[in-house]
């Protein structure tokens, strides 16, 4: 499908399933984060339900797809509020499981005037990590599985099932606990890292060296988001790149997640990798011009208008 092309009349929208952690997050904007001890006044505040795979799913949906979330939350008021908020945004939340006796994850994020952030999450250690309850039969109707590293048990079960069903899976290769990426990366058809996550996993002096080393052992797509430098991936034994447009950065929170959602959507529409990566870079860059984490994800029309 050519860049910017829509699904043909009567065709269904691409469908994604996202597996990962979710969190009720309060995002504060301050001019700068001073050294401790200190007190600083925020000039903006938003509340959002987020998470890596979840935010990618929200971007997938806002840009024209349909997305479902498979995740766990507490059987508490924050969990019920999260379910209602995600349902109101058009996500399928039938795979959001409330676990009795546990607390939903919560986080505070402080974003400074440069768009950089400090993230302070809390995850209840009593939450059951089991993934045997996942409704795996629903993968038969999916075009892409989106997974993050914050619930590795769920990601592993889902990606194994996706492989058996012939459904592509995209892993958000972020910095993770020891052994997690070693378990999950081989299962993904698309291993899409942050540059920091890639270097932590593979080592090496550069993103290019790390990508080429990974591509020698991984048969699928391997790539890395590189912030203002855009996206790099391996194709035909060489590293290719598309750049990101120059923007005034207000908030980088969830920019990588928006990239994943946009990239997955474009690939599900059969866009070539280069066009899909360019589309996703523009979506992520536009998000960075807006405060509020994933709430700053642009619309499809806004992304297409920004493309050359």
Describe the structure.
- The chain has helices spanning 52-62, 77-88, 152-165, 180-184, 195-202, 207-215, 255-268, 273-288, 300-306; strands at residues 15-19, 23-29, 44-50, 66-74, 92-99, 106-111, 117-122, 144-147, 169-173, 190-194, 221-225, 231-235, 238-242.
- By secondary structure, the chain is an alpha/beta fold.
- The chain has one domain (15-127, 135-306): Ribokinase (UDP-N-acetylmuramoyl-L-alanine:D-glutamate ligase).
- Strands 5-4-1-8-9-10-11-12-13 form a nine-stranded mixed β-sheet, sandwiched between helices. Strands 3-2-6-7 form a four-stranded mixed β-sheet.
- The protein starts with 14 loop residues before the first strand and ends with a helix.
Q: State the strand order across the main sheet.
A: 5-4-1-8-9-10-11-12-13
The fold-level CATH name is: UDP-N-acetylmuramoyl-L-alanine:D-glutamate ligase
Low-pLDDT parts are 1-9
CATH architectural label:
3-Layer(aba) Sandwich
Largest sheet report: 9 strands, mixed
The counted number of beta strands is: 13
* Beta-strand content bin: 25-35%
Order of helices and strands: EEEHEHEEEEHEHEHHEEEHHH
Query: For the residues shown, what is the average pLDDT?
Result: 94
Brief description of this entry?
The protein is an alpha/beta fold and 308 residues long. The chain has helices at 52-62, 77-88, 152-165, 180-184, 195-202, 207-215, 255-268, 273-288, 300-306, and strands at 15-19, 23-29, 44-50, 66-74, 92-99, 106-111, 117-122, 144-147, 169-173, 190-194, 221-225, 231-235, 238-242.
Chain-wise SSE layout:
Layout: E1 15-19, E2 23-29, E3 44-50, H1 52-62, E4 66-74, H2 77-88, E5 92-99, E6 106-111, E7 117-122, E8 144-147, H3 152-165, E9 169-173, H4 180-184, E10 190-194, H5 195-202, H6 207-215, E11 221-225, E12 231-235, E13 238-242, H7 255-268, H8 273-288, H9 300-306
Parallel strand pairs: 1-4, 1-8, 2-6, 4-5, 8-9, 9-10, 10-11
Antiparallel strand pairs: 2-3, 6-7, 11-12, 12-13
């Amino acid at each position: 499908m050519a860049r910017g092309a829509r699904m043909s009349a009567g065709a269904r929208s691409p469908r994604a399933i996202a597996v990962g952690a979710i969190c009720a997050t309060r995002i504060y904007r301050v001019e700068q984060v001073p050294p401790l001890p200190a007190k600083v006044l925020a000039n903006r505040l938003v509340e959002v339900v987020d998470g890596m795979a979840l935010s990618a799913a929200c971007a997938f949906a806002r840009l024209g797809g349909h997305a479902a979330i498979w995740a766990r939350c507490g059987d508490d008021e924050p969990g019920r509020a999260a379910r209602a908020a995600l349902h109101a945004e058009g996500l399928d939340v039938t795979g959001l499981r409330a676990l009795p006796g546990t607390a939903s994850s919560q986080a505070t994020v402080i974003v400074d005037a440069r768009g950089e952030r400090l993230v302070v999450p809390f995850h209840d250690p009593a939450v059951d990590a089991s993934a045997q309850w996942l409704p795996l039969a629903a993968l038969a109707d999916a075009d892409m599985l989106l997974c993050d590293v914050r619930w590795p048990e769920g990601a592993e079960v889902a990606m194994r099932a996706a492989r058996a069903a012939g459904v592509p899976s995209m892993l958000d290769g972020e910095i993770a606990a020891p052994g997690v990426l070693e378990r999950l990366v081989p299962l993904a058809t698309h291993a899409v890292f942050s540059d920091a996550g890639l270097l932590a996993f593979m080592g090496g002096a550069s993103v290019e060296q790390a990508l080429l080393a990974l591509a020698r052992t991984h048969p699928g797509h391997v790539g890395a988001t590189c912030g203002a430098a855009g996206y790099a991936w391996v194709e035909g034994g060489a590293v290719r790149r598309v750049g990101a447009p120059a923007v005034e950065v207000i908030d980088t929170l969830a920019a990588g997640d928006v990239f994943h959602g946009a990239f997955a959507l474009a690939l599900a529409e059969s866009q070539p990798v280069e066009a899909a990566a360019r589309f996703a870079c523009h979506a992520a860059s536009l998000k960075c011009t807006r405060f509020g984490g994933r709430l700053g994800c642009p619309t499809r029309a806004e992304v297409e208008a920004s493309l050359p």
